[in-house]
């Protein structure tokens, strides 16, 4: 008889199975997120400029290339370990879109971060930046705005929407009827802090709070729906759910801290005010370093 695909469409006869905490995958996932994503701009700034000339890829770009390969691989391995049969087509389309969006972002982000060395200030809009404002002909400014659009809007959308979609798809399979299995091991407790802090950076720097909060609300709704069926989250589901809860608390603390910053308020108008960490850095920290020098 033909064996059904591991990622085939979900079927009614699927049974809920126990899935142990994926320490290896969650550890690698958290580590590479911190090193290859959060560490990208840091590596670009601290490493000598002579090693990576401005007309060549920076160290951060190589980090980004590695991230674009390793992250979809880890997401696929995570889906493979789900105790529930998950929709194969949706997973594949999400992974393909993720890689394309992250690759678009690689190019736009590379140029935008290299502009820092020329005096570009991330807390200002493209047209308000002194080095951009005086460009001639003025149509060049439109080109930089297009680059910013690919970096901050199109790239982020095609990167983060499938990313959170895959996490949610995996989350749907993290339920068990055995209450004793709904607990986090010590390893999960140790990883939940770094994981939450990274998601805080992802949401604030990527400006994807709406996507994040809708994913979180969908997770809460699913938890309440499954609870009525007598199902509870297993250790992997708890790890992901608690990471999102702590992330929300970190975002709230970040916004409260910078609530009265008039300059950042000008760049991030509207109801949802969530400043980017790198905008905060170029506004406050880079000036502090320059003063010390």
UniProtKB/TrEMBL annotation:
Keyword annotations of the record: Membrane, Transmembrane, Transmembrane helix
Phylogenetic classification of the source organism? Eukaryota, Metazoa, Chordata, Craniata, Vertebrata
Q: Output this protein's name.
A: CLN6 protein
Cellular component per GO, a single term = membrane
User: Which residues are the signal sequence here?
Assistant: none
Q: Please give one Pfam family short name.
A: CLN6
What InterPro entries does the record tag this protein with? CLN6
Q: Which residues span the membrane?
A: 62-79, 91-108, 159-179, 186-202, 208-225, 237-259
One GO biological process this protein is involved in is: lysosome organization
